[in-house]
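> call design_seq(struct)
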């Protein structure tokens, strides 16, 4: 899984043409991954201000508006790929445009084995 991070300050500093180019670059990468059969899925996440944090304390669910933590960067989206190696996953992650302005975290998805759904 590619966890894509963003920063409002970094995003706001980009020109409209730079933002447009990032969209083009994302689209080209996704089309390539679909053609290669490596694309599993992914999505853009809503702004952290639309988050609701939830914790269970003493058996009671307590919710709070806004992001879970105060941070400069936030999780902005994710991509799931099925590729042959960690090296290939890192190659793909390096081509995600956000890697050049904030960051992308590559994290394996664990097999839950015999868990029944």
């Amino acid at each position: 899984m590619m966890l894509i991070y963003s920063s409002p300050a970094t995003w706001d500093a980009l020109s409209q043409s730079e933002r447009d180019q990032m969209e083009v670059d994302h689209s080209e990468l996704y089309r390539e991954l679909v053609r290669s059969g490596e694309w599993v899925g992914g999505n853009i996440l809503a702004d952290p201000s639309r988050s609701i944090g939830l914790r269970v304390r003493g058996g009671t669910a307590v919710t709070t508006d806004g992001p879970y933590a105060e941070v400069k960067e936030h999780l902005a989206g994710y991509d799931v790929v099925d590729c042959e190696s960690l090296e290939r996953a890192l190659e793909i992650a390096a081509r995600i445009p956000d890697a050049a302005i904030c960051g992308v975290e590559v994290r394996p998805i664990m097999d839950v084995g015999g868990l029944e759904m």
